């Protein structure tokens, strides 16, 4: 069970929780929970939730003090809070009562902040962090130690930048952006004119634009545009070790899982979901709402709303059929042989 | 040939080597070697070994002073040390006589060590490294420059942490753990409640637990648990650029090759081997001793002892048969067409 | 449109440009351009280019002041500069007139440079960068802040090393090498002797050798040799998040796209091209001029000049045929069933 530290101990009645999430208590509204937990590991002091049907079996056996759930399961002797979206409700309780944001600490004396950088109110800059010439940092932004923000980059308000992040020159980062450790923003794109006596480097003169509310996972790399910008749209969430090539444009509210690679100049629409280790070739267009299965290889543009998978990717429902035969190829081979023999 | 520096020059007779590795000299036990080498590049001062049968052809042509080998090949005029496991014997000679561990150097004046951190005996902390509040570091641990250890994390004894490693808050790292450069431990897991007006971030309140004797490769990322811990079991070795999602549990003595991705909440047993670039979906169970081929896509749980490969993964022996037909699909197509024509 | 800063404003007549790139003006040779742009986004002050036929449609609609192109398209009222290789010509104009290299800044007082390091003329070392004992840095090399160069490593002349790069001991880096942020050079290779009571670490005693004119993308990892060297040949360009295992040898002028993985001891020839997310097993030989499609899985050596793709990889032209049938497997299955029924 996760609890806050003793000084900040949480104690919530089920009634208070239900009020906050527009839920309805089934059981004892005065019951008090002090921590949160998964449904398997919960004890009587824990609030938990049921969202994934895979875990429904634990509803009758869990020791949880209370369960956020989307309908009353009719199990006696347990407390439930019935709510439309139990996962969202749980996340909101976590965010409000159990998450402790880093405490603003001002500009460290061991940070190196350019005299002509513009630093907002209530900004934290950690030990050894470097803020270069011409940079601006918005109010309330928290920058951990060991970060490098290069010339003329801008960071918005209330952003959170973890240690080891490198932001190269002229990057534009919006409000509320979260950047996990080790991310590289604005590295040179992979642009060369190939030649028999060597490959000529195409100077990468553009930048990276990251809109508001984006989150970027650890050690992900987002290359600067060759000319113009590489753009990550508002509210898009990117997992760890993802590669975003130069001049890629990603729309709003996409979800991009770990180790995905997107090659140069490809345009991704809004609300696109990309599974882990998928790869998308360059100069393609991926429409709004497209869903790409993990490990897919995308070598052609995809119209809006499609669900695709495979290498090369096909419609997901077709992929399921293809794979079902693929697994029986040795059998199919034998059957064809038999037909030939008997002819 | 690798030699130690002149001041530390190694000179070993074959008898001394044989004694150390429980081997038997075939040839001149008084012969002296001063360096180690691969079998192709060896000279008469070098000790080498034969383990991979692919390199057996070099036994008669190598100039090596002596060869660790698992049986006397009956080649005249050469020196052999016959030993059960020549690779292990070679590794042990390397570790004892040719590897120089970093020399303890104390706490650098340019390190930033919190006053309430607990630092053991004989600990090294390099220039610019930050040890935050509430951290403890065990005896004999060596931390290179440019490392960040966040609040309340614990590092065991005799650990070796290379430059650029980021350890976020509340991580627990065991004894003898080796962490290569650029590793991120405890970044937020990829947890969001998707929504039409934006994806709500689920606070990632758990931590990472790394048991004794684990090694982690460069730029690998291991996310903290959402609730509870992400666990890497004792003696497990992880290569570079691997992604371990939140709440993954990995057992003891696993070997995980480069660029593997393991999605959230999956449980991996003991002695599991995972080939490079394989991907494992979330919420699965991979049994003890499972072997997963490189580039596989795992979308279902796997019972203990299975050897699997492919996308999606099937038993490896089935995969070999399927691929054999897959390569002849154009031929199969023609044969079916012919059958139809002749009907 | 990209322009240089006001103080450094560029203004070039088409005649001047044509002279520099051995081109021929079609249109007004006295026309002046002040910036560069893509063909879609160009305005009347911009120079642009046409190389990818996909963008030919924009020739008649672009507002560009002038277009570098490989033959006169016969479009009236527009300015063209006809040149053999428009892409290369454009890149050269960019490099000469629009790219601003970082301005040499000397050795920062906040850098930590060993007294016995040998530093050339006109070298820049940024804040917080650590240059260890026995290191040498060639003339004109620019090292950004937050870099770590470990003992006895050598860096050539006119190299450019971005923030967050970690170079472990004994590495050798040539002239004009560019290393993007977060790269790890010389991490330990993944070498263990597996055992039931734990895996015995094989000390990684070799180093990394990077020849002249190599570029390495962000967060890429290049492991040191176990014994001997991992070698990256002259003029080879490596993209982001690539994994190069221990004792890999890569020839000259290769192009290796993002997220590729190359396992230990594999030898890659000259002018090899490897698409994104491809994986190459260990101990293989890839011949000169081989082209490997994105996402391929290479489990066998490849003779010079082959073009391959797929998992496992086959000749690319075979792969196209195989995939064409693979997509119709459900149809093939039905047809075989029909043949059986009608027999």
The CATH architecture of the largest domain in chain A can be given as: 3 Solenoid
Count of structural domains of chain A: 2
Main sheet of chain A? 11 strands, mixed
Low-confidence stretches of chain A: none
How would you describe the oligomerization state of the chains in this entry? Answer: homotrimer
CATH superfamily of the largest domain in chain A: Hexapeptide repeat proteins
Question: How much strand content do the residues of chain A show?
Answer: 25-35%
Q: Report the largest inter-chain contact.
A: A-B, 61 and 59 residues
Provide the gyration radius of chain A in Å: 25 Å
The CATH topology of the largest domain in chain A corresponds to: UDP N-Acetylglucosamine Acyltransferase, domain 1
**How many helix segments of chain A?**
4
- What is the highest CATH level, the class of the largest domain in chain A? Mainly Beta
**What is the number of E strands of chain A?**
39
Shape of chain A: flat
Strand order of the largest sheet of chain A: 10-13-16-19-24-27-30-33-36-38-39
Overall pLDDT level of chain A: 95
Structural class of chain A: alpha/beta
Kindly state the percentage of residues in helix of chain A. Answer: 10-25%
């Amino acid at each position: 069970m996760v609890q806050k530290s003793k000084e900040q101990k949480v104690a919530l009645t089920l009634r208070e929780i239900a009020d906050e999430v527009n839920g309805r208590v089934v059981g004892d509204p005065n019951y008090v929970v002090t921590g949160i937990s998964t449904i398997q590991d919960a004890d009587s002091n824990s609030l938990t939730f049921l969202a994934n049907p895979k875990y429904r079996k634990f509803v009758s056996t869990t020791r949880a003090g209370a369960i956020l759930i989307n309908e009353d399961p009719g199990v006696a002797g347990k407390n439930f809070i019935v709510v439309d979206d139990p996962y969202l409700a749980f996340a909101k309780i976590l965010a409000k009562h159990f998450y402790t944001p880093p405490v603003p600490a001002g500009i460290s004396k061991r940070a190196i902040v350019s005299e002509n950088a513009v630093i907002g109110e209530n900004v934290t800059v950690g030990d050894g962090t470097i803020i270069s010439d011409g940079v601006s940092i918005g109010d309330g932004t928290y920058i951990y130690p060991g970060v490098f923000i290069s010339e003329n980059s801008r960071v918005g308000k209330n952003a959170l930048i973890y240690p080891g992040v490198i932001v190269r020159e002229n990057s534009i980062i919006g409000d509320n952006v979260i950047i996990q450790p080790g991310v590289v923003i604005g590295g040179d794109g992979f642009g060369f004119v190939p030649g028999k006596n060597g490959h000529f480097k195409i100077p990468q003169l553009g930048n990276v634009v990251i809109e508001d509310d984006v989150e970027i996972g650890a050690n992900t790399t987002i290359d600067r545009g060759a000319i113009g910008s590489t753009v990550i749209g508002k509210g898009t969430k990117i997992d760890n070790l993802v590669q975003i090539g130069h001049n890629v444009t990603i729309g709003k509210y996409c979800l991009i899982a770990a180790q995905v690679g997107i090659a140069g100049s490809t345009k991704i629409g809004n609300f696109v979901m990309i599974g882990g280790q998928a790869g998308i070739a360059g100069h393609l267009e991926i429409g709004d709402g497209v869903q790409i299965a993990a490990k897919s290889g995308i070598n052609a543009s995809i119209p809006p709303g499609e669900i695709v998978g495979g290498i090369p990717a096909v419609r997901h429902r077709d992929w399921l059929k293809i794979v079902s035969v693929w697994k029986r190829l040795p059998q199919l081979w034998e059957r064809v042989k038999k037909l030939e023999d008997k002819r």
